[in-house]
Amino acid sequence: MTYFEELKNITKLIPTTIVDFSIDRERTSPPTQASSNFITNKEQGDWAEDLIFRAINETSKNYVAVRYGKSDDLIAGDEGFNKFYNEFQDELDTIGKRPDLLIFKKEDFDSSIGLDISKINHSIIDDYVKKAVAGLEIRSSAFLIDKYEQEMKRRSRFHLEKAFEIKSQILSDYEDLLKQKNEKYIELLESINEENVHIISFRKPSWKATERLQNLSSLFKELKDHINVIQKRDYLSITPKVEDIKVVYKWIEKFNVPHYYFQVFFDKSFGISFKNILTLLTEPDKEGEYYEISQDVKNQNKTTIKINTRKTVPVAYKIIEPTHKGVRKEMGRGRLLFYVTFEGGTAYLDIENLKHLLNIRDF
User: Fold this and answer.
1) CA-based nearest residue to 173, from 238, 128, 219, 225
2) Residue 363 falls within a domain, yes or no?
3) pLDDT tens across 114-127, in order?
4) Structural domains in the chain (count)
5) Which tens digit of pLDDT belongs to each residue from 56-65?
6) Residues 6+ apart with CB under 8 A from 42
7) What letter would DSSP give residue 133?
8) Is 310 part of a structural domain of the chain?
9) Burial code of 30-52, b = ≥16 C-beta within 10 A, e = fewer?
């Protein structure tokens, strides 16, 4: 069974409410203008791709990373952007979405066409692309994940302690009232522990007949508020967009090359296979702990799969931050955009984890 055939079998189990592979993707129209935030995010993504590109080529003895993803320095509002954008849409409909990087064994690497094949006509490189051992989609995130994790642990511990304090206070000071009003609340409170506090749910009472009942209702509200914070998503994620699933799958259908998502933070990087992403979508019992599906306000409300990085593979255990500088760009009609560019930085790869993720014996 080929790699693509394995994926095809998995897609049959994915609910059509998440991804319906029987429906053609919707072609999008070119955006009319870019924002400073958009360009900064693009620059950050380009930096992340270059970071992993350099790390692999400077570290590996047996493999070569090659730039492959369709990209251009044009942005909405630049002359020629609409032509570039529509050509990109045409390509998505014909071969799917190219990963940013391809990984080749050194003996299969064609030095005559070099380390960047992103602008070579695909009819020339089709057979060459099929020799790759992996395609990497590189995403970036403007976080230091270690500091984020530390803060989330502190937040969870604080609200957990407050919740247990209120639970104890209610049981010690108001048990008599609960017996009168509803003994099920006693059972509920006694059942709350560190294991189930992340999933427990209840409707807070709104008793007001006496001052003491009002105080009890207020304590239940405080308890629920603390539990709500504990239950909020507390992890950073690898974030494939649902609309990309089809076009990545289409590319794999044509080239049969294993595909992976890498998320680059400013201190570490994590990876997950596309096969694992599809498999997660067939396992609704893992929703919440392993992933969530939501509309991302920061990404034009596009539906995004947010995969818990704690459930993925660390591929770079340390990243030295890049330098950055502000840039002024003059657009049509004298409109000015100011954005940030990134340069340099170093990723220290976790070789054993990388080998395991990419299913290769050496590196």
Assistant:
1) 219
2) no
3) 999 999 988 899 99
4) 2
5) 999 999 999 9
6) 75
7) S
8) yes
9) eeeebeeeebbbbbbbbbbbbbb
